[in-house]
TrEMBL record:
Ribosomal protein is among the record's keywords: no
Pathway: Amino-acid degradation; L-proline degradation into L-glutamate; L-glutamate from L-proline: step 1/2
Cofactor(s) demanded: FAD
Signal peptide start-end: none
Keyword Nucleotide-binding: yes
Name of this chain's protein: proline dehydrogenase
Keywords: FAD, Flavoprotein, Nucleotide-binding, Oxidoreductase, Proline metabolism
Biological classification of the source: Bacteria, Bacillati, Actinomycetota, Actinomycetes, Kitasatosporales
SUPFAM superfamilies on file: FAD-linked oxidoreductase
Catalysed reactions, as listed in the record: L-proline + a quinone = (S)-1-pyrroline-5-carboxylate + a quinol + H(+)
InterPro entries in alphabetical order: FAD-linked_oxidoreductase-like, PRODH_bac_arc, Proline_DH_dom, Proline_oxidase
Top-rank taxon, per record: Bacteria
Amino acid sequence: MLGPVILAASRSDRMRRLISAAPVTKQVVDRFIPGESVDDIVPIIRDLTARGLELTMDVVGEDITTPAQAEAARDAYLRLIDRLEDMELGERVEMSVKLSMFGQALDGGHDMALANVRPVVEAAAAIGTTVTLDAEDHTTLDSMFAIHEELRRDFPQTGCVIQAYLFRTEADARRLAAAGSRVRLVKGAYKEPAEVAYQQKHEIDKAYVRILRILMEGEGYPMVGSHDPRLISIAQELAHRAGRKPDEYEFQMLYGIRGDEHLRLAAQGHRMRVYTAYGTDWYGYFMRRLAEKPANLRFFVRSMLSK
Ligand code: FAD
């Protein structure tokens, strides 16, 4: 029952101020968000890629309130891409972006988000890599899919995320499972109402398998975003049955969660991409990680009490 409470807190400004100012927060946050600046994150990119992992980079931030913040988000990604160019890692390091951080929720936000994300997609393409559009709450998705379609006209490799907990997602998966598409399937991390989303874990897991089958049997490139051991072995089985070779799909997990499994899958010859977040506006991202596993919250509270 704690998960929905934490997710509600993730949207509260008061909680944001309280938690961001807590004296021990930073050391707990570091487990999931291992840096604040490009300089912090470059050594981590070097280390993880040297271990055979691939990465998708997220500059944390969402729920911005001014167009200037949206432009600052764009510029933060451009600075990162500039540094990646020298590292010559190509598609081994791609970008993940949240359109809310590019202005999607502001007045005229759809066009603003498209205008701000396009230069990031262009810069990524120029260094031989790509961008995946993260999925946020369900009210943002029609706009996200329209922006995805628009970007794919010039950059067909642009990826997007779909969430198994939403009733709409099976239909989205059928539409997206076409040649050349790159689709990350996740369970879904936001607090969604029963009118649009499954609420029970077993229902979400069953939907995940149905949707994964659609992606694996389709023509696109499935990206399996989950830490769930059962779903990972089902994904391997579905890929095998669909006749996919190891480089025709990939696994993705979050930095700080099941790190040994990242290395184990990579050592077995799978493509394993680690979603690595960095930046200063970490509150929303961090709270969703707490909501996914209430034991994280207990650890967080214990570390505050022990100070
Ligand atoms: P779960 O059943 O939640 O977890 C399985 C096991 O993984 C748990 O038993 C536990 O051992 C471990 N685990 C999972 N989460 C945690 C945690 N926070 N801390 C510690 N251990 C944990 N959601 C979106 O809505 N939109 C997105 O764009 C999006 N992008 C994502 C990208 C990637 C690469 C990944 C891996 C997830 C993304 N998510 C996104 C989050 C996703 O929706 C889930 O909330 C999250 O992955 C937890 O679900 P799970 O599949 O790992 O299964």
